[in-house]
């Protein structure tokens, strides 16, 4: 009897010990960082929302800004140049998050966002001042988003990470919904008041100071030369696709060769050969590039359709687009649950299929009614939104933790540069009258054919995305199973 009692007691002690091992130590550095990260999320996401909504708002009204300032031919710069800068600073911020305190970085971003807002508003009489202000706003607003992503990847557990990636994606599209609604509403009064919206971030400075972790990176020094060299390469890529020129292409080739030589021969580059030859990570980047290629073009094409085909006001277009981005926000909110049920590969396949249906459906139904096109847009944007969580979640299993900052930064660079290049491709095709000289599926030549053909191109890009998932799915499956 004594032996039985003793055995039972030992079993109970073993169970308690096992349970204690599974419970994180509340005083450990990892657990403290996890709690601080979760406490800082509301302020970080709100500031990110205030900065990001400006991107979609000005994607909607950039032509109005150019027309009002007598710079109609250069109006697209209001959209393309901030997008190029966004791609570069995403990479920069993500990398710096491996070394610099997130609190200091976020405060810097908020002050830049506020300065850009005031500069643009008081300089709204000059196109170039507005352009510089938008670049500063875009660069400042992205800091909070980059800090949030890197800290979520580094300090949250698997379940929390998937949930917060979905919430981050939802906030991105919520900001898009607010942006297109505010763009349509305020543009009917005076577009310069749009520039003041991010000033609301000033109210979150006390929360940033109180809750955002003040963790400085340890170990390797910041590779300023390597980061700067790569930033130039990234900028030249986006600039070339926005403003094609032989000399820019030649300059790009020289910097690519210089960067490649630096990575292969440098003493301690911030991107190692191991990083650049990581097949799993590079596969994710390729998929990310194609999935988000026409992300920025979603808004201006509906402005064109509303104006040239259905002859409705900008405020009516913005109302419909607000509905589209509300759908995207809802999909983002549940994407954590979707990835738990389907896994990464199936979720990406579903994303690509939805994008194909939305794009091709819009091409066929281009003259069947604006609300029907809005429904197709909801399907298309749901597909783009759904791809975000599985793609970014893949970074955590294709890279070691000490490279998460760089991985997220390069991923952000890929996503935003891709969208900027896609925007340039969209602008070039839509400016080419010959692109609408012939329609398919019974669509008449002219504006309707031009928009319909553009949707077919967007659908073709989604097909390429689906094919890429088919090629790399085995690798992603192995990574997922290995967790």
From TrEMBL:
It is a multi-pass membrane protein. It comes from the Bacteria. InterPro entries: MFS, MFS_dom, MFS_trans_sf. The keyword Membrane applies. Residues 1-33 are annotated as: Disordered. Residues 1-23 have a biased composition (Low complexity). It is found in: Cell membrane. Residues 40-477 form the Major facilitator superfamily (MFS) profile domain. The chain crosses the membrane at residues 41-62, 74-94, 106-129, 135-156, 163-187, 193-210, 222-241, 247-264, 284-302, 314-340, 347-366, 372-392, 413-431, 451-472. Its main location: membrane. Keywords: Membrane, Transmembrane, Transmembrane helix, Transport. SUPFAM superfamilies: MFS general substrate transporter. This is MFS transporter. It comes from Bombiscardovia nodaiensis.
């Amino acid at each position: 009897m004594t032996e039985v009692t003793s055995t039972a007691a030992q079993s109970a002690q073993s169970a308690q010990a096992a349970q204690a091992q599974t419970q994180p130590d509340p005083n450990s550095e990892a657990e403290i960082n996890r709690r601080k990260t979760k406490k800082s999320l509301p302020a970080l996401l709100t500031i990110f929302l205030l900065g990001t909504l400006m991107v979609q708002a000005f994607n909607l009204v950039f032509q109005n800004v150019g027309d009002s300032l007598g710079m109609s031919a250069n109006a697209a710069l209001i959209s393309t140049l901030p997008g190029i800068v966004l791609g570069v600073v995403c990479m920069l911020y993500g990398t710096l998050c491996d070394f610099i305190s997130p609190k200091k970085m976020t405060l810097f971003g908020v002050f830049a966002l506020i300065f850009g807002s005031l500069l643009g508003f008081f300089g709204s009489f000059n196109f170039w001042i507005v352009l510089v202000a938008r670049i500063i706003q875009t660069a400042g607003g992205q800091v909070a988003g980059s800090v949030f992503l890197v800290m979520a990847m580094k300090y949250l557990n698997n379940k929390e990470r998937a949930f917060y990636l979905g919430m981050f994606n939802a906030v991105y599209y919520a900001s898009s919904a607010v942006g297109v609604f505010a763009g349509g509403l305020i543009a009917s009064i005076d577009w310069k008041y749009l520039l003041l919206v991010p000033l609301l971030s000033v109210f979150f400075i006390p929360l940033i100071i109180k809750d955002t972790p003040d963790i400085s990176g340890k170990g390797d020094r910041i590779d300023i030369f390597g980061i700067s060299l790569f930033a130039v390469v990234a900028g030249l890529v986006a600039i070339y696709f926005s403003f094609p020129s032989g000399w820019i292409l030649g300059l790009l080739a020289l910097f690519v060769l210089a960067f490649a030589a630096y990575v292969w021969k440098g003493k301690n580059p911030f991107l190692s050969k191991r990083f650049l030859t990581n097949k799993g990570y590079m596969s994710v980047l390729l998929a990310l590039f194609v999935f988000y290629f026409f992300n920025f073009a979603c808004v201006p094409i509906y402005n064109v359709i509303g104006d040239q085909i259905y002859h409705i006001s900008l405020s009516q277009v913005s109302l419909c687009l607000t509905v589209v981005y509300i759908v995207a926000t809802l999909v983002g909110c549940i994407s954590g649950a979707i990835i738990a049920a389907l896994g990464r590969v199936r979720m990406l396949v579903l994303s690509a299929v939805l994008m194909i249906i939305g794009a091709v459906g819009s091409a066929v139904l281009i003259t069947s009614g604006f609300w029907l096109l809005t429904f197709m847009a909801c399907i298309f944007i749901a597909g783009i939104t759904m791809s975000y969580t599985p793609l970014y979640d893949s970074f955590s299993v294709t890279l070691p933790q000490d490279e998460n900052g760089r991985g997220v930064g390069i991923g952000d660079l890929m996503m935003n540069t891709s969208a900027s290049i896609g925007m340039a491709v969209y602008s070039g095709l839509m400016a080419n009258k010959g692109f609408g000289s012939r329609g398919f599926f019974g669509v008449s030549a002219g504006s309707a054919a031009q928009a319909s053909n553009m949707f077919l191109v967007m659908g073709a890009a989604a097909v390429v995305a689906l094919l890429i998932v088919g090629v790399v799915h085995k690798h992603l499956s192995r990574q997922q199973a290995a967790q």
